[in-house]
Protein: Polar amino acid transport system substrate-binding protein
Amino acid sequence: MKKGLVFAVILALFVALAGCGGKSAEQTSGNGEAKKKVIVGTDAAFAPFEYMDKGKIVGFDVDFLDAVMEEAGLEYELKNIGWDPLFAALQEGKEIDLAISGITINDKRKQTYDFSVPYFESTHMILVKENSPIKNALDLKGKIVGVQNGTTGQAAVEKLFGAENKNIKKFENTVVAIMDLLNGGVDAVVTDNAVANEYVKNNPDKKLKAIEDPANFESEFYGLMFPKGSDLKPKVDEAIKKVIESGKYAEIYKKWFGNEPKVDNLLKQQ
Ligand code: ARG
Structure:
């Protein structure tokens, strides 16, 4: 009898371990139904949305994702895989089931991916040294401008100065682009407004300033990104709306940005 039990335990362990290798580890929920763990990818070098702090991925997106997944009743795991790999992984349908990374919803990306309803409004800003003569986007002409490769920041600069422009320097992530600005490798960095503002605020010793230019930089919205046709999208959309309507969104927003979000603007987009 006892032997049988030991055998059963070993067998159960074996089965559990065997399930751990793939993308979505199968789990068994209370009612015996198979439940999938959703794997979410991110590029954790984009504070305050996602960044590494003492070995953990933290940020506005991380808290928001957690609220959404809880609302949707989905178990998940967040993986830091880097920006370009996010797009490749979703396209190949391997490694991750969705991505959250301050990702702007736009028509070009919509051809290849599905997006959730919008959850954050953004625009671009120019980061420069405090004593820089640059005052707006047009002043970037003839200057070396750093952008994160494959971002809408890159697209915004290319729209102004042409895609072939040799003065646009592309970086693997936004942190290294800002490092290069500090080291004098570029004259400016164009990135998302919240990221630019956060950097200036948290690093007064670096003597940088963030410049806005609504005449040249459009407003855009972030969404969670899925492979085309993902069956997670309807569930996640529903959960996002609930998180926004319930006030949970405002709570998370205040924690990271210190003020009230313009929820009406977001709801108008949905
Ligand atoms: N919002 C911009 C875009 O979608 C930049 C996002 C970069 N995010 C990141 N985690 N590095 O292109």
